[in-house]
Amino acid sequence: MDRQLRNKQYEQYGGGAYNTSDVPGGYEQYGAGVPPQGQQQNQPQFQPRIPHKPYFTYLATAVQIFMLVYSFIYNQNLTGSAIQTNPLNPMIGPGANALVQLGARFVPCMRDVVGFTTTTLIQCPTSTGGTAVCNLETFCGLGGFHGGGPNQWYRFITPIFLHAGIIHFLFNMLFQLTTGRQVENELGWLRYGIIYMASGTFGFIFGGNFAGPAIPSMGASGALFGIVGVLLVEILQNWKLIPSPCWELTKLLLMIVLSFLLGLLPGLDNFSHIGGFLMGLTTGLALNPTYNFSKFHKYANIILRIIAVGISALIFYLLIENFYAGDPNEKCPWCRYLSCLPFTGWCDSKIGNVTTTTSPN
């Protein structure tokens, strides 16, 4: 394995250049000087790992770039302006109506919500810059509800590839094309893709349960927080192989705490961050490559993977059931404060206006 690449892989944990003495490549990437006592260097698990090509990262990024450009074109056709200016979208991007019609998570398009029905009238923008009145089905778009009630379940998945604007996109891509790409180099496109999509989808399921139902949400942040969860799992699983593991863990935990605190700011969906991180932990336990130091350790890892798969499936099922069981915010009114600070209406802020009007009898 190329020495420069291995140094870059190790740097994702905050380390510098590691000991490049004659040790197995599987240990070199974590900076270990020697394998644990009793392990033989000719064992397959300690042979140098060939880095995988980050095909999934490049594909996801290409789709996200396409959708960002298309969202500006769509908003131009919908409102007469490429970006929302009244009120200004702080992320420098389209308005709420365009983002919802392109697939953002918007709960009233997915299930019945108090205050929203198929006959609810909503102020929709026009190509001349004004507003008109449309019903919920028209506001949601994407083919409507096909004669039934709100049922667009795929909005748990499509928002992963949408962004609220240029600033939102750049922040996510900075992490995705650096740390995310390095993690895929280690995991391979299939494992990485499963973790990425599971974390992103579960982030929007988690947010759908506890965020304000009238606030559109989109972005790859939940998927990327899942990758952060994988990094935490990898440090804990390979504790013996990492120089100064306590320091590396401390730095990662500080980054996680700071990221969740930033998620309390207006316009950011911290619920997606939390949900993505939790799913990243469980899917990371299930799919992350590990080193076995004994037969007991090997079987313990297998059992842990089985448990992690079961937990992942269970929390997916429970929160989807909870989402369709009614308004989860009524069961947990304080949960909203995990994603906002109760100051000057921050908890009611959103990317754009979604204003309903009284439906005539």
Description:
With 361 residues, this protein is mainly alpha-helical. It has two domains: 110 residues, no CATH class; 185 residues, no CATH class. The protein is built from twelve helices and three strands. A hairpin with a 5-residue loop joins β1 and β2. α3 runs antiparallel to α6, α6 packs parallel to α8 and α8 runs antiparallel to α9. It is globular.
In short:
By secondary structure, the protein is mainly alpha-helical. The protein has helices at about 5-10, 25-30, 55-80, 95-100, 135-140, 165-185, 190-210, 220-235, 245-260, 270-285, 295-325, 330; strands spanning about 120-125, 130-135, 355.
Distance between the termini: 72 Å
Number of H/I helices: 12
Strand % is under 5%
Measured as a percent range, the helix fraction is 40-55%
> The biggest beta sheet, please?
3 strands, antiparallel
Strand order of the largest sheet: 2-1-3
Low-pLDDT residue intervals, each spanning 5 or more residues? 1-42, 349-353, 357-361
